[in-house]
UniProtKB/TrEMBL annotation:
Annotated TM spans: 17-39, 51-76, 82-103, 146-167, 188-207
Compartment annotation: Cell membrane
Name of the protein in question: D-methionine transport system permease protein
Domain ABC transmembrane type-1: 13-207
NCBIfam families, sorted: PRK10782.1 (NF008049)
A GO CC annotation given for this chain: plasma membrane
Similarity remark: Belongs to the binding-protein-dependent transport system permease family. CysTW subfamily.
Organism: Pectinatus brassicae
InterPro entries membership: AA_ABC_Transporter_Permease, MetI-like, MetI-like_sf
Domain of life: Bacteria
């Protein structure tokens, strides 16, 4: 393999890591509060508001039901409006972020629902406000599970970022399409697959380790 191809592999790997990290960070800022709202606004919860809960749940389910490849194409006008182009690494982060937000919301919701409601009742009996319950009871108790769930989302984003290469999104997927598939280079295809596998293994190990350290049980 030539030095130019090695440099291109390094650049593509950096683009993938960049896409995933930025998309995950933005999606988490929105998705985690979304997951909290999905739990706390449900019936007989601390912020009960069933109308709001149904609206949020409907939007989340609608976005999650759209396959990523279709979402990328469908929001091209939005992508162009936000970043000025629909091609490239930065452009790919728009659909990546939008697809991750509802995924994170549902994962966080599942983690928080695992917290025994008795802890919430105990906090209410002590006069805690809903915000205090969320901050000091729900999130700390669910933190280990949330980290494990977010690890799953990161791995899904790695796969989605590779898919973004099909429309010029950059990263490992773009390299595999342009230099592996279109130029009939099975060696490039194999290397990109190995890189993605190693990347996923690293993320999974780090996520499992962190979740285990945060587990209070």
């Amino acid at each position: 393999m030539s030095n130019d191809m090695i440099l291109l592999l390094g650049k593509s790997l950096w683009q993938t890591v960049y896409m995933v990290c930025v998309s995950m960070a933005i999606a988490s800022v929105i998705g985690i509060p979304l997951g909290i709202l999905l739990v706390t606004t449900a019936k007989e919860q601390i912020l009960e508001c069933q109308v709001l809960n149904r609206i949020i749940a409907t939007i989340v389910n609608a976005v999650r039901s759209v396959p990523f490849i279709i979402l990328m194409v469908a929001i091209i006008p939005l992508t162009r409006m936000l970043v000025g182009t629909s091609i490239g690494t930065t452009a790919a982060m728009v659909p990546l972020t939008l697809s991750a937000i509802p995924f994170i919301g549902r994962q966080v919701e599942n983690s928080i629902r695992e917290v025994p409601y008795g802890l919430v009742e105990a906090a209410l009996s002590l006069g805690a406000t809903p915000f205090q319950i969320i901050r000091h009871v729900l999130l700390p108790e669910a933190l280990s599970s949330i980290v494990a769930q977010l690890t799953t989302v990161i791995i899904a984003l790695i796969g989605a970022s590779a898919m973004a290469g099909t429309i010029g999104g950059g990263g490992i997927g773009d390299l595999a399409i342009r230099y592996g598939y279109q130029r009939f280079r099975p060696d490039i295809m194999l290397i990109t697959v190995i890189i993605l596998i190693v990347l996923v293994q690293i993320v999974q190990f780090a996520g499992n380790y962190t979740a285990k350290k945060l587990n209070k049980k």
